[in-house]
Design a protein that fits this description.
GO terms for molecular function: nucleotide binding; oxidoreductase activity. Belongs to the Gfo/Idh/MocA family. This is Putative dehydrogenase. This protein is 32% helix and 27% strand. Strands 7, 8, 9, 10, 11, 12, 13, 14 and 15 form a nine-stranded mixed β-sheet that branches. The protein has two domains: 138 residues, NAD(P)-binding Rossmann-like Domain (Rossmann fold), CATH 3.40.50.720; 145 residues, Dihydrodipicolinate Reductase, domain 2. α4 packs parallel to α5 and α7 crosses α9. The protein is an alpha/beta fold and 328 residues long.
């Protein structure tokens, strides 16, 4: 692909408002359209971000011939239907985390994308942060030996409101799909996929998960201890433990600007790696460059990892008595 990759935005909400300004750092990309179920909301978003075309439906956005790839930023249960129609129309996809509301939904998108050989990726921006890339490189070089454990936590003090998306079961509410995806994906990235997950926690009056402690177990003895919450703030710290040291990822670990390397018997090494813009730029570059190169998946955020994380999240939810569904 020699010309610029043309992007469409599905879902003009809070996260899309944060992501769109980082397109200024993606030289080979241009936003050509936004789509919403409300023409008024689409028009407002287009005006705020100088986007030339505003569609009053997702079907209209998907059918737009001036769009190559769609960034799906709607609530989780809506991802599947939009992705399904986008893939049928030959559009590539960047789908916000959590990828879908269910494992079956995630598997369907992956199978459709692979069958059609169309680029598709989950928008897990953490993996592309320069500070996380630096941690990954240090581990590959043996700086902390073999990675054996991970700790991570992420929590916010969100006042209970049954009308809020985060507490609405129909919109995929709960701590797991919004915050758990970060801690589980982080652990899976550095330890691989565990053989089991054990969850304990509490529910909101609407029935969604309000907080949870997660233990990931591996047959060879590795482990991850993770915590998430919507009922109280947590620092957002993460640690990667190896046989010869550890790496601290200071708050908030899912978009850090620095890490601290602790080699056994040595003084801590502070390593700073600033992102471009807010930090969403790096995942946008991954998709844009991948499409221009003719790739269909990201090596950094492969679809198999997305499926593994989705399975763990839904398993944990079900242990807590929470069962998610895709939107019709």
């Amino acid at each position: 692909m020699e010309r610029k990759v043309r992007w469409g935005i599905a879902g003009p909400g809070r996260i899309a408002d944060l992501v769109v300004p980082d397109f200024q750092y993606v030289e080979s990309a241009v936003i050509t359209a936004v789509g919403s179920r409300s023409q008024e909301r689409a028009d407002g978003f287009a005006a705020r971000h100088a986007i030339p075309v505003a569609h009053g439906s997702y079907d209209s956005l998907v059918a737009d011939p001036e769009v190559d790839v769609i960034y799906v930023a709607t609530p989780h249960p809506q991802h599947l239907a939009i992705a399904r129609s986008a893939l049928d129309a030959g559009k590539a996809l960047l789908i916000e985390k959590t990828f879908t509301a269910t494992v079956a939904g995630a598997r369907e998108i992956v199978e459709r994308a692979r069958a059609a050989r169309i680029f598709c990726m989950e928008a897990m921006w953490t993996r592309f942060q320069p500070a996380i890339v630096a941690a990954r490189d240090l581990i590959a070089d043996g700086a902390i030996g073999e990675v054996r454990a991970v700790q991570a936590e992420l929590g916010v003090d969100r006042p209970y409101d049954p009308a809020d998306r985060l507490f609405d079961p129909a919109q995929g509410g709960g701590a797991m799909l919004d915050l758990g995806v970060y801690v589980v994906s982080f652990a899976q990235h550095f330890l691989g996929t565990p053989e089991k997950i054990v969850a304990t926690g509490s529910l909101a009056p609407t029935g969604v998960d309000l907080e949870a402690g997660l233990l990931l177990g591996y047959d060879d003895g590795k482990s991850a201890a993770l915590q998430i919450s919507l009922r109280h703030s947590l620092p957002g710290y993460a640690r990667i433990f190896g046989t010869k040291g550890w790496i601290d990822v200071p708050p908030r670990f899912h978009h850090p600007k620095a890490i601290v390397l602790h080699r056994s018997g040595a003084e801590p090494e502070h390593i700073t790696r600033e992102p471009l813009g807010v930090g969403y730029s790096h995942e946008l570059i991954e998709v844009t460059d991948g499409m221009r190169a003719g790739r269909t998946e990201s090596a950094m955020m492969p679809l198999d990892d997305t499926l593994a994380v989705q399975t763990l999240l839904n398993d944990a939810c079900e242990q807590l008595g929470v069962h998610h569904n895709e939107a019709p």
